[in-house]
Amino acid sequence: MIYLDYAATTPVRDEVVQTIQEALIESFGNPSSTYRIGKSTKYLLTQARKSLANLLNVSEHDIFFTSGATESNNWAIRSQAELARKLGKGNHIIVSAIEHPSVMETLVFLEQEGFEITYIHPNSDGEVTAAAFVKATKDQTIGWIAMAVNNEVGSILPVFELGELAREKSLWFHVDAVQALGHLDWDYSELACTSFVGSGHKFYAPKGIGFMVYQPWDKQMKLTPLIFGGGQEANKRSGTENVPYVLGMVRALELLAEEKNSILEHHNDLQNYLYDQLNQHQIAFERNGNPKAKVPYIHNIWLKDLMASQLLILMDLAGIYISAGSACSAGSLTDSKILKAYYPETPERWSQSIRLSFGKESTKADIDKFIIQIKKFIERK
Ligand SMILES: Cc1ncc(COP(=O)(O)O)c(C=O)c1O
Question: Which GO terms describe its molecular function (predicted)?
Answer without folding.
Answer: cysteine desulfurase activity; iron-sulfur cluster binding; metal ion binding; transaminase activity
